[in-house]
Each structure stands twice: as structure tokens, then as C-alpha cells.
Amino acid sequence: AQNVTVEEILSSYKQACQKLNCKQIPKVLKQIQELKDLAPRIDCLDLKGEKLDYKACEALEEIFKRIQFKTVDLEQTSLDEDGASALFDMIEYYESATHLNISFNKHIGTRGWQAAAHMMRKTNCLQYLDARNTPLLDHSAPFVARALRISSSLVVLHLENTSLSGRPLMLLATALKMNMNLRELYLADNKLNGLQDSAQLGNLLKFNCYIQILDLRNNHILDSGLAYLCEGLKEQRKGLVTLVLWNNQLTHTGMAYLGMTLPHTQSLETLNLGHNPVGNEGIRNLKNGLIGNRSVLRLGLASCRLTCEGAVAVAEFIAESPRLLRLDLRENEIKTGGLMALSLALRVNQSLLRLDLDREPKKESV
Fold first, then answer.
1. How many domains does the chain have?
2. Domain of 306?
């Protein structure tokens, strides 16, 4: 609608609520009342935590009809299939959002996801979709996969804790091989395994050179899965910039694969291996690969079960590195010997800007 006023929006919304016999949402009234400028897109429509049944969703159309937003936040709004379908259809039709948060909605069901997929496919303005903790199960995944294949304007996709392991991940990974727009993919907390799931992701990395951030924290990738990922990583000439493997039970065996792969990766700038039982042997396996690598600028080794011996290997890499900017070594058992080695390496190194160590040095009997 053209040239609307705040008063018109409020009265239309209130009338709709009356007609539909549903409660007005005070949080919505307050946000609309406070609007000054109704020009192109308003920063945010925040519905987080409101209980939206089907009627409440229908009433919101009076707002979407008249104004557009950058962010529409539907986190934890208890959406059911009917409400979700109605809302996503509106957001698609009126191009209501560039950022949409539908996380923590356990019951949007197949029809909800179907409408979400339709919205992803049809709107040209939706760049960011956050669906954390909103299960994407076997029967819904094909719709989303189809949308991502030809998709869409999406640049950032959050699917943490959405029960992806197995067929849903296979469908998504296969579809994303064709996708040229997505830049950031967050798949934490999905119980992804070291076999089929990792094979699918490795395969995705072979064919997709547009995704820049892949976040796989808190999964079960294991050394077997890292071997698959490394197959894909070798192919990344331009593309993947950040890889997060935090807490995936990776050991020295996996570090050997990664050590052989690192000299081949050309775009990888941030590698986070924190909270894996990598150990000193793992760092030794990684060291030559890191020295032979020409791209890594930030390396995360927090809580990797390193002692002084591991710190010495890290120090040898620091001394050789002309480009490392940041290194995280917190929560390791690094004592005086390791700190001395790091200190010597820092005298030689010209690039490192930030080194994270524990505030309190580890206790030792001297």
C-alpha cells in the first residue's frame, strides 16, 4: 500500500483482530506506535516468544500488506502448520523480510516447511534464514532441497539442531551443489556422523565453490568423516574461507589427513579445531601441512589436550609463518617450557596480532 499512516495500520490491525475474534498483541501495537518513518524497510518486527495461533497470524496480514521489514523475528512463536503456512505465504507475497528467524518452532510440520520452501524460492529479497531448533524431517526436506537447488536469494542459512542426519542432509547437500548464492551454512548440533553425512559434505565441497563459511561444530564427524571432508577441501581453490570443526571427536589420525590437505587449500583462512582430543601427536601431524599452507590466517586450538610438547610444535609453525594473524591456545596444559618456545617464536614472527592463552599459567612443581 502507498502512503499509509501509523494510525491506519493500527486501526486495520485492531479491526482484523475483532473480526477474527482474536486478541491484539500488545507487543505489536507498541512497535507500530513507535514507528517514525514508514519508508522502504523498517528494521524489525519482533514477535519473539508470542504465541501465534492461526487467527493471530491472519490478523498480521493487515500489517504486512502495508509495510515491509528488514527482520521478521518469529522465534519461539508456537507456530502450527496452519499458522506457519499462512505467515510464510504472506511474507513471500508481500516480500516482507530480508532476514527471517523461524527458530525454535517445533510444530510447523510438513505444510509449514512446504510454505517456507515456496517462500525461499519465490522471494528475491530473503537473504538470511534462521531455522535453528526447528526440525526438518524426512518428509519436509525434499521441498527445502528443491528450493535450494534453484534458489534463491538466500546467502545465510542456519540449520543448527534440526535433525538433519541421514536423508535430509543428503537431499540438502545434493541440492546445494547447484546453488551459487549461499555463502554461509551452519549445521551444528545435528548428530552428523563420520560416514554418509560426512561423505555428503565432502562431496558438496568438491562441487560447490561459493560457500565461504561451513560450521560443523558439536557433531560426530570423527576422523573417518574428516577424511571425506579433506577430499572435498582439496578441491577448494576459491570458496571456503572458514571451517569450524569444534567438538567432533577428532584425534591425531584425522590431523594426519588434514596435514596432507592443507598445502592444497587456497581459500581457507580460518580453521577452528577447538575441543577435539587432538593431542601433541595431532599437532605434530598438522605442523608440516600448516607450514606448507599459504592461506590460513586464524587457527583455533583451544582445549585440544596440548602440553608443552604440542606448544613447541605450534611454536615451530609460528616461527615459519609469514601470515598467521591469530592463534587460540586456551584451555591446554601448556607450562613454562611451552611458553618459552612460544615466546622465542614470537620474536621471529612478523605477522601474529593476537595469541590467546589462559590468564593463569598452569601450576607446576619447579
1. 1
2. 198-365
